[in-house]
Amino acid sequence: MRKNLTLRYTVQQCAYWAAAAGVVSFATAFLLEKGFAASHIGILLASGNLLSCAAQPVLAGAADRIGGNIVKWFIAGLTAVSMCCFSAIQLLPLSAVIYGLVYLLGVFAFDAMNPLLNAVSVSYNRIGCKINYGVGRGIGSFAYAISALVIGKVMAAWGADWMIWICLALLAANVLVTVTYPSLVEGRAEDRRQSQCCSVPVFFRRYKWYCVSLLGVMGLAMFHAMTENYLIEVVAPLGGDSGTVGIALFVATAIEMVVIVNFDWLRTKISDTWLLKLAGISFLVKSVAFLLARNVLTIYAIQLLQATSYSFLSPTQLYYADAKVDPADMVKGQAFITASYTLGCAIGNFTGGQLLDAFGIRVLLLAGVAMAAAGTAVFFLTVDKKDVL
Asked: Range of 215's domain?
């Protein structure tokens, strides 16, 4: 079983995050072109996030109990569901309501596989198969950057439908690489001998401080999702378009890649808890900078803060969950921290759409400052606390 799976994992991360640039980050631009109102888009995206939040702990509990190949087959199955949904909206004559619901289901399935990708890294490293998470996730960020740049230009030149076709090709690649992973039976059996996994209700009692700290993840995710998914509305008053959004996302994810690829080295210099605190501070600074931005060049400069905001938060979640949660509950630990981020995205998407339609972009950005401040405060109050197991 001792082999290096980093290349395979990197391809998987690249396919997933390149597709995310279209499925998630350009969802608002895509659905606006299809005639949906911003408030309706917010409800759709929030509903997809909420559904994935509900599904993630259930899937994780099953993975913790069953072990073996179940994680990779869950990933492959969820990817297939997304592909069917996005194919349907392209190929079938659907009413506006059905169109929105099918897109929602596709986003749900796509979001639900995120914690399982993290669990793949932890699980295989525990049985002696080397996966360098920083390299895989970092190059995945670069794939997101390239994809965002390409999709932004393609949508501006040829229309929104091309985004879906690009994402379908990327999702197909994700399925192909996922099914090639070796069995995890040996490693999961060993974990089950060491300790007994707990139920979801017991998880909340056993890991109290860990669960409270997830409120900080939610707060930062609310701000991040709201500003990223409605970035087209942020740049429009400054003279930008979908091409501008693509460039802004490229700037953010290019610098994100540099940081995450070197994340293993960074963790030797800064503790995981301080990385979370610094991420919160950076998100807060970013929220204020968005509020004060006066031109497109300023937006590009703000995106450089990705280096210490999302670039710290995203990979640190993996290690923070692994450190705070028993190995037998590992998949649930990964699922709950990812579900917290997803729930924050749901609230941010819904709130953003409602605020945008009712009050305009200025109030949306003010709400983003409050969300980032709340998430940062929770991190400073909780991440150093230890649960007594």
From this structure: 6-187+196-382
Query: CA dihedral defined by 65, 70, 71, 73, rounded to 10 degrees?
Result: -160
Please state the three-class secondary structure of 11-53 as a single string: HHHHHHHHHHHHHHHCHHHHHHHCCCCHHHHHHHHHHHHHHHH
Mean pLDDT of all residues in 186-209: 64
Nearest partner of 235 among 287, 282, 289, 293, judged by Cα: 293
The answer to whether residue 366 is domain-embedded is: yes
- Distance (Å, whole) CA 343 – CA 383: 19
- In a domain? residue 389: no
Lowest mean pLDDT among 74-83, 103-112, 125-134, 367-376: 125-134
Q: Taking Cα atoms as reference points, which of 376, 138, 176 lies closest to residue 277?
A: 376
Exposed, middle or buried, 233 (CB in 10 Å: 0-12/13-18/19+)?
Answer: buried
Residues in CB range of 178: below 8 A, 6 or more apart: 12, 72, 75, 76, 79
Neighbours of 185 (CB within 10 A): 14
Closest CA to 108 of 87, 79, 88, 137: 79
Please check the confidence at residue 187 and state whether its pLDDT lies above 50: no
d(CA 287, CA 373): 9
> What is the percent of the chain where pLDDT is above 90?
26
- Cβ atoms of 83 and 15 within 8 Å: the answer is no
CATH number at residue 165: 1.20.1250.20
> If we measure between CA atoms, which residue out of 287, 286, 138, 317 comes closest to residue 218?
317
Number of domain units in the chain: 1
One-letter amino acid of 206: R
Per the domain annotation, does 387 fall within a domain? no
Residues 160-183 have a mean pLDDT of 87
Residue 2 has pLDDT above 60, yes or no: no
Residue 117 is assigned to a structural domain of this protein: yes
**pLDDT reported for residue 186:** 46
